[in-house]
Amino acid sequence: MRELRPDTSEVTSAAALQQMVDSLGEAGGRIVLPAMELEMDRGIALGPNVELVGQGRSTVLRKAPGRIYPLAGYHNYGMRDVPLIFTDGLEPGMTVAIRDDVAGCFGETFARITWVDSPWVGLDRGLESDYHADQNPVLVTAFPLIYGLDVAHVAVRGLTLDGNLPAQPAGIGACRGAALYFLRSHHVTVDDVVIADFAGEGIGFQMCSHLTFTRCQAVRNSGNGFHPGAGSTAVRFEGCRAEGNGAAGFFFCVRANHITVSGCDFVDNAGPGISIGTRDSHNLIEACRVTDNGGPGILFRETRRPVAMTQVAIRGCEIRRNVQHGGVGEVTVLGDAHAVTLEGNLIVGSENRETTGVFVAPTATTIWLADNQITHCFPPVAADPASLVAGDPVSKCGAEAVQPVDFRHLGIVVKPA
Questions:
Q1: Are residues 149 and 135 in the same domain?
Q2: Which residues contact 352 (CB under 8 A, 6 or more apart)?
Q3: 26, 36, 269, 308: which has the fewest Cβ within 10 Å?
Q4: Whether 204 and 312 share a structural domain
Q5: pLDDT single digits (tens) 5-63
Q6: Domain residues for 260?
Q7: Using CA atoms, how far apart are residues 164 and 64, in angstroms rounded to an integer?
């Protein structure tokens, strides 16, 4: 494997770092960064087979102050340029997001600037939506600090990503970005990465498979700490921590499945500690500590069949003093959730206020409660007996249980080992 070990005189800008990544080509290689602090006026796009390594807390990639550029008027889907009122400070190679008050989520565009011919700015991909003059369309210098689009066999290790939140007038939406973000990417390893104070989410990925996150921290970001989304499959989180984020500590998005979350901490987040929703099935949460969050420690969101969550197991977790700002129970199971196991958990409420230990909506079915220790909660369990079963209904869950057929919604073929 080709390896680059630049010193600080060679990594003087994000553009210089991107050139190093690009120089590795399709064969890839490893870039080992020195102890340094680097201001990022653009995100770093990883190529295939690339490993980006830092020196832990001593290698800091810090986002530059952000700016907002209003569009001069309406512009339409698919175009690779936008008209702006002014273009001061923009240059080719910078990464940006475009949206209006209506087109958000996957309607937001994340792109790299290819040319500037004021008042027009060229983009390396087509717009994801129409942007309307009466809906405040803007281009913002908001972007993932590191990202991978359609790449495989990449790794990020030993880095600190500083989002510089006070200097950001706008962030990037959860579906198009996070401080560390992957889209349609496979076989990704992330170890010992700290993400703090980002205007958006800490770690997010969409339509990905075979990802492993170990010893990662998402702290004080404005959105969710961790966000596996849009059908992502076969993922492991181990020894990670989400603390003080502006939404959930861990947010399972649509059809995030066959995911194992083991030995992780979710502390003092504004929303739920862990939030599970539409088609988030075959997931295992084990030996985690979920404490002092604003919402329920673990929330199964209001979702109806046939897309309700199923085959989810929560085992050996410590769930304490959640529901700080609203909610029903330390563990709250809503909608048509079914085939859910809660086994061997310690569930502790707050001594100074009344909360339910486990709340199960009447619409939920085949919920198994076994060997949970519940204290300082009233009632310990609020559930229709018809919702409960006497045996474990979960037959296979977690990344370890994934089978080749479980990847077909992503359009990829995985051969058995």
A1: no
A2: none
A3: 26
A4: yes
A5: 999 999 999 999 999 999 999 999 999 999 999 999 999 999 999 999 999 999 999 99
A6: 3-63+143-400
A7: 7
Read off the amino acid at residue 110: F
Radius of gyration from C-alpha coordinates of the chain: 22
CATH number at residue 376: 2.160.20.10
Q: What is the pLDDT of residue 354?
A: 87
pTM of the model: 0.96
Pair of tokens at residue 320:
């304490």
Same structural domain for residues 33 and 136?
no
What's the total number of domains in the chain?
A: 2
Instruction: Please classify residue 166 by burial: count the beta carbons closer than 10 Å to its beta carbon, then call 0-12 exposed, 13-18 middle and 19+ buried.
Output: exposed
Pairing mode of beta strands 50-53, 29-32: parallel
> How does pLDDT run across 235-270, given as a tens digit for each residue?
999 999 999 999 999 999 999 999 999 999 999 999
- Structure tokens given for 64: 């530059």
Bridge partners for 83 per DSSP: 120
Residue 263 lies in a domain: yes
Residue pair 170/137 in contact by the 8 Å Cβ criterion? no
